[in-house]
Amino acid sequence: MMSLQACQVVLLLVCVTATVHGAIHEIKQNGNRYKIEKVTDSSLKQALASLRQSAWNVKELDLSGNPLSQISAADLAPFTKLELLNLSSNVLYETLDLESLSTLRTLDLNNNYVQELLVGPSIETLHAANNNISRVSCSRGQGKKNIYLANNKITMLRDLDEGCRSRVQYLDLKLNEIDTVSFAELAASSDTLEHLNLQYNFIYDVKGQVVFAKLKTLDLSSNKLAFMGPEFQSAAGVTWISLRNNKLVLIEKALRFSQNLEHFDLRGNGFHCGTLRDFFSKNQRVQAVAKQTVKKLTGQNEEECTVPTLGHYGAYCCEDLPAPFADRLIALKRKEHALLSGQGSETERLECERENQARQREIDALKEQYRTVIDQVTLRKQAKITLEQKKKALDEQVSNGRRAHAELDGTLQQAVGQIELQHATEEQSPLQLLRAIVKRYEEMYVEQQSAQNNAIRDWDMYQHKETQLAEENARLKKLNGEADLALASANATLQELVVREQNLATQLG
User: Where is the LRIM1/APL1C-like dimerization domain (predicted)?
Assistant: First the structure.
């Protein structure tokens, strides 16, 4: 009886070990779920080959927590029913092309170094947080998609191609590098999008209007927005919205939100009191929701103002500004210039540090959220591959620097040859030689400027002559017209005289 139970356990969980090139990998099976551990780049093909007899049965394949730096769709081609692929917590980098995996529904790529990603038409859920992704391509499919790309290098919504922006239900682009957003670029998801997370980007402008029929949550907190404009009517039906910690000064008073709104958070901005007054006078229910939101989050009826001199309207801090946008823009530009030049005040420096630290805390929390427990041997292999990748990148930088140095050296040598100082290299110091080269370049620049000025002058002269010719042509046309009129008049007079002559001849005859 015990042997039968043991057999059943083996059927439920099969562990296979194999030695390939001195490395041991383990394969664990639970039904149609397979997990491969302790596999490396050199042993991956053999590990996958050992599953070929069961390839028809593999629906979920877990390769997480290994030191894999590369994998291709060709390696996975035998698994024709593969629906879930877990590649998280490896060291995959550069481009990952899985577009030909036409049955793959779920891909977990969290905690890698991938820069560009291509997925197939059946993808429904894509987890790719904590990478270096700057571009994602999705083959056109009919199903809804949930895309999680937090903490990457996305700079605009169009970094996700049209297929990735079509029929999206959940889109998480938190902690990327986006500076402008157009809701119109999500038009293909207008009837599916429910959650949009753009928190902790650098967004200063929102454009385009689309009616998102099912949008429930919109998070644009911790960005650089100064105006909550009419484009936000796209999110009129949301139940949860946050623009906390932006640079908001004004709100479009014509904005209207759903009666189902439950969360409205605009703390940590720099409002003009008048704009809050105008907006809330038209949206009294939103004002009540705002107070409830602040009360729930802080335990207070009003947010705490960072500047004691600020007042309140409703639950939010505000200030009466004679020229709201101009005042805030001038203040921000002055602060930016002061910080860049190292002359910012201690308060401004601390504020900048707080923003950077808050962003870093979010990054650290996200990495911890998706952290995978990895054994020390695999961890050391991952660290080694990561260092090798960094070394490769540095080698490329050094190589590029050497090429640039060689080009500069060639240019300088050419300049030396053009200097009319035959023995300068022997008789002059390097500093004198450099001055001579600079002087030669200045002379060349003057010559180029002179040539450009001459060309501009010649063009102006040509244009002037062309204008004169056009004027002369117009004058001649006018004269020709007058001459034609005079000739026509003379012909008419001549005809009249001929008729009179004939009449006179008739009378005399």
Answer: 323-508
Q: What is the DSSP letter of 395?
A: H
Query: Mean pLDDT, to the nearest integer, of 88-108?
Result: 96
> What's the N-to-C CA distance of the chain in angstroms?
154
Q: Domains of the chain, with CATH numbers?
A: 28-336 (3.80.10.10)
Does residue 346 surpass a pLDDT of 50? Answer: yes
User: Mind giving me the DSSP string for 218-277?
Assistant: EE--SS---EE-GGGGGGTT-SEEE--SS---EE-TT----TT--EEE--S--EEHHHHH
Torsion of CA 424, 428, 432, 438, to 10 degrees: 10
Of residues 452 and 507, the one with the higher pLDDT is 507
- Residue 407: φ, ψ to 5°: -65, -45
Per DSSP, 303 falls in state P
Cut 0.90: pTM above it:
no
Residue 8 one-letter amino acid:
Q
- pLDDT (tens digit per residue) in 31-49: 999 999 999 999 999 999 9
Q: Quick one: which H or E segment has residue 477? A: helix 430-508
Under 8 Å CB-to-CB from 129, ≥6 apart: which residues?
110, 111, 148, 149, 150, 151, 152, 172, 366, 370
The token duo for 274 is 């008048």
Query: Alpha carbon of 145 to those of 91, 123, 168, 196: distances in Å?
Result: 25, 7, 5, 13
- CA 497 → CA 125, 193, 486, 506, 507, distances in Å? 99, 90, 16, 14, 15
Q: Which SS3 state, helix, strand or coil, does residue 15 take?
A: strand
Backbone angles phi, psi at 172, to 5 degrees: -115, 105
In terms of C-beta density within 10 A (0-12 exposed, 13-18 middle, 19 or more buried), how is residue 76 classed?
A: buried
pLDDT over 80 (residue 347)? no
Separation in Å, CA 233 to CA 29, 223, 237: 51, 19, 9
How many beta carbons lie within 10 A of that of residue 338, not counting itself? 14
Q: The tokens of 50 are what?
A: 């050992």
Amino acid at 138: C
* CB contact at 8 A, 239 and 216: yes
Is residue 101 within 8 Å of residue 80, measured between CB atoms? no
Q: Which residues make beta-bridge pairs with 117?
A: 96, 136
